[in-house]
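User: I've been trying to design a sequence by hand for this structure and keep getting stuck. Would you show me what you'd pick, starting by listing the structure so we're on the same page?

Assistant: Good idea, let's start from the same input. This is the structure you sent:
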C-alpha cells in the first residue's frame, strides 16, 4: 500500500506551485556552472529556505548532472530538528513534492538495521528541501532518507560504507553551518569548520559548528576526498547581520 509523505514545507522553504518551483530551481541551476569534476559520489548542501541557500545548493547539485540518464539510488542523510533520536528511517513509500512523487527504495530500507519510525520525518525539512533539486537534475531515482543525531557516527558509517562504493548510489548530506551569531564571528567560525571538513580532520571534527554535526562527521568518515565549492550566509541574502546562519556546499569523492 502506498504511504505518501506530503510536502509539508512547500510554500515556506520553497515555492508551492509546480510552475513556480520549476522556474525558481531552473533559474538557480542555469546560473550554476558545471565544473566537470570526475568521480563525484555525493554532496554536502544546506537545508535552509531557497531564498537563502538555494544558489549554494544548486551549484553542488549541478555537478551531479552526469548521472541524469541513469537509474540512481540516493541516500539523503539529514539531522532531525524535531525529535530526540539516534538514527531513523521512515515507513513511507514515497516523498511528494510539487514536482511529483519520488519512491523510497524499499530494498535498501529493509537492509538497514536502523529504527523505523515515521514521526521524526513527518515535519522535518532537512530531507524534503533536497528533493526538488534532485528531481530537476536526475530523471530516474529512488531515495533512502535517514535522520541522524547520534554521536556514534562510526556505527552509521560502518553500515553505509558498502553502499558508498556502489556506482549507482549517490549521497546527499544535509547540513547548515553556524547559527544566530554576529556576521563577522559567523564567518570566522564557518571558515574554521570548512577547513576541518575539507581536511577531513576527524580529530578536530568536534569543532565543526553545524546543526548537522553528526551528518557532516559521517561524510568525513565515508569520503575519500572532500572539495569546498561555495559559501554564503543569511546576511548576504537580506537577513539580519546580528543573527546569521552560515551555508556551504561541498563535493564528495
Amino acid at each position: 500500500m502506498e504511504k505518501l509523505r506530503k510536502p509539508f514545507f512547500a510554500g515556506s522553504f520553497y515555492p508551492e506551485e509546480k510552475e513556480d518551483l520549476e522556474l525558481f530551481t531552473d533559474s538557480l541551476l542555469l546560473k550554476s556552472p558545471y565544473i566537470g569534476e570526475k568521480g563525484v559520489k555525493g554532496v554536502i548542501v544546506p537545508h535552509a529556505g531557497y531564498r537563502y541557500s538555494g544558489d549554494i545548493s544548486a551549484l553542488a547539485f549541478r555537478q551531479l548532472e552526469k548521472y541524469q540518464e541513469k537509474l540512481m539510488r540516493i541516500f539523503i542523510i539529514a539531522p532531525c530538528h524535531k525529535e530526540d533520536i539516534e538514527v531513523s528511517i521512515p515507513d513511507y513509500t514515497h516523498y511528494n513534492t510539487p514536482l511529483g512523487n519520488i519512491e523510497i527504495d524499499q530494498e535498501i530500507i529493509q537492509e538497514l538495521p536502523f529504527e523505523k519510525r515515521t514521526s521524526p520525518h513527518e515535519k522535518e525539512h532537512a530531507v524534503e528541501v533536497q528533493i526538488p533539486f534532485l528531481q530537476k537534475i536526475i530523471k530516474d531515482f529512488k531515495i533512502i532518507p535517514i535522520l541522524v543525531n547520534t554521536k556514534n557516527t562510526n556505527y552509521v558509517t560502518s553500515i553505509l560504507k558498502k553502499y558508498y562504493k556502489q556506482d549507482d548510489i549517490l549521497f546527499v548530506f544535509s547540513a547548515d553551518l553556524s547559527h544566530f551569531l554576529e556576521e563577522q564571528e559567523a564567518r570566522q567560525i564557518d571558515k574554521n569548520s570548512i577547513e576541518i571538513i575539507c581536511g577531513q580532520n576527524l580529530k578536530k571534527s568536534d569543532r565543526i559548528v553545524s546543526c548537522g554535526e553528526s551528518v557532516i562527521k559521517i561524510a568525513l568518515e565515508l569520503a575519500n576526498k572532500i572539495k569546498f565549492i561555495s559559501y554564503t550566509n543569511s546576511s548576504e541574502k537580506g537577513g539580519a547581520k546580528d543573527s546569521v546562519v552560515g551555508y556551504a556546499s561541498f563535493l564528495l569523492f
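That's my pick for every position. To get oriented when you compare it with your attempt: The longest helix spans residues 183-199. DSSP finds nine helices and twelve strands in the chain.
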